[in-house]
Write a structure and sequence with these properties.
Order of helices and strands: HEEEHEEEEHEEHHHHEHEEEHEEHH
Distance between the termini: 32 Å
Strand content: 25-35%
CATH topology of the largest domain: Trna Endonuclease, Chain: A, domain 1
Amino acid sequence: MEALKKEGFEVVDYSDVKSSVDLIAKRGKEVLVLRVLGNLDALKPQHAEDMAKLASLLEGKAIVIAERSRWGVLEDDTVYYRYGIPAMNPRTFLAFLRGDLPRVLYTKGRGIVRIDAEKLRRRREELGLSLQRLAELVGTTKETIYRYERGYYPSLEMARRLEEALGVELIEGFEPSAEEPREELHFPFDVLRSLGGRVSEFRRLPWSAMGRGRLTITFLHNISHRQLPRRLKEIRRARGTLFRYYLYVGNAPGVPSIGEEEILEARSFKEIEKIARERNEES
């Protein structure tokens, strides 16, 4: 967390509660949704789903930071994927914060890199090298060089051989990004989406759902009155950083609330935003 603050991020810490997310960091329009684990294998599918949905809603990036996995120790300068979420070790993450993208993607039991295919082809032709001759210089086949020039990813070792043979830098970093989530919403959040808001529902976050139009609003639903004070305290940590207003779906004295009937009667998400603004100011 200190590294994030040092790089200018505002940080909301949920590492002390049962949540799919440990840290949410914001710097300007840049948002990072983070899970910090010793072992990457501890990430559960529902955690990854929540991370991806929250990152998509906030137009940010979901990243898992871990030291090891069933593959062994996570290597430096390498991005891994688990349930569609990019993962990297702490050193690689710190480099990423400073603008250095990881160069290696670990997939299907091996590390591969992205190279500038057009630059490869152009430099080979400038040097007057045939596909066959370049293949001989780097120890592969002309068919493989042909594939590299059309976007096929080589290993890190092969990419370095190509760079040495051609005298240019070819390796490009990987921008870590989660798979775009798809979801079907339950009532009443499906109604909120039908009103024109971008809405996502969560399993293991301090809030039940989040909706976004002109404003970002957090919703609590099906929470007992006994649990409500604790959950509201957890939600308020992120107020002003991730969202401006929150609403309890139901009736809770002294708490900004909205009834299910009001949601059904609303004609647009703008009406929900107006209710959220008014009732947060009143409370």
